[in-house]
From TrEMBL:
InterPro entries: Flag_bb_rod_N, Flg_bb/hook_C_dom, FlgC
Ranges of residues in domain Flagellar basal body rod protein N-terminal: 9-36
PANTHER family: FLAGELLAR BASAL-BODY ROD PROTEIN FLGC, FLAGELLAR PROTEIN
Pfam family membership, one: Flg_bbr_C
Protein name according to UniProt: Flagellar basal-body rod protein FlgC
Superkingdom assignment: Bacteria
Subcellular localization, as worded in the UniProt entry: Bacterial flagellum basal body
Self-association and partners: The basal body constitutes a major portion of the flagellar organelle and consists of four rings (L,P,S, and M) mounted on a central rod. The rod consists of about 26 subunits of FlgG in the distal portion, and FlgB, FlgC and FlgF are thought to build up the proximal portion of the rod with about 6 subunits each.
Organism encoding this protein: Hydrogenophaga laconesensis
Family to which the UniProt record says this protein belongs: Belongs to the flagella basal body rod proteins family.
Higher taxonomy: Bacteria, Pseudomonadati, Pseudomonadota, Betaproteobacteria, Burkholderiales
Length: 134
């Protein structure tokens, strides 16, 4: 593995964590949603990552394999006056757990920051190596 492949690995991880942050932001934005334009309740989404093993071209890293919807049931709140209430007076909200999403956001943000730091360190090492040759 060459020193330059570190940029490919960390770059792919930064891209994947960026997508994860976007999904978390979408989940948090819809945490209190009742029903979308299609009449269905919003379902929380989660990212599935896949490692990319080192190939003959030296590329390795991580990529987003899929974005899946959660199968957890929606949160039911008794509010018979709400226009979306069912026959029993319950309104089904999105199945997003804001606390879980905030933890997921912190984790993705730290992973993003760590990968940026890896790229900065690799850049510094390469610059020091070039300076040694002068």
């Amino acid at each position: 593995m060459s020193m330059f492949s570190i940029f490919g690995v960390s770059g792919s991880a930064v891209s994947a964590q960026s997508q994860r942050l976007n999904v978390v932001a979408s989940n948090l934005a819809n945490a209190d949603a009742v029903a979308g334009p299609d009449g269905q309740t919003y379902k929380a989404r989660h990212i599935l990552f896949q490692t990319v093993p080192m190939g003959s071209d030296g590329s390795a890293g991580v990529k987003v394999q899929n974005i899946v919807e959660s199968d957890a049931p929606g949160r039911r709140v008794h509010n018979p006056t709400h226009p979306s209430a069912d026959a029993e007076g319950y309104v089904t909200h999105a199945n997003v757990n804001p606390v879980e999403e905030m933890v997921n956001m912190i984790s993705a943000s730290r992973s993003y920051q760590n990968n940026v730091e890896v790229m900065n360190t690799a850049k510094s090492l390469l610059l020091k190596t070039l300076q040694m040759g002068q």
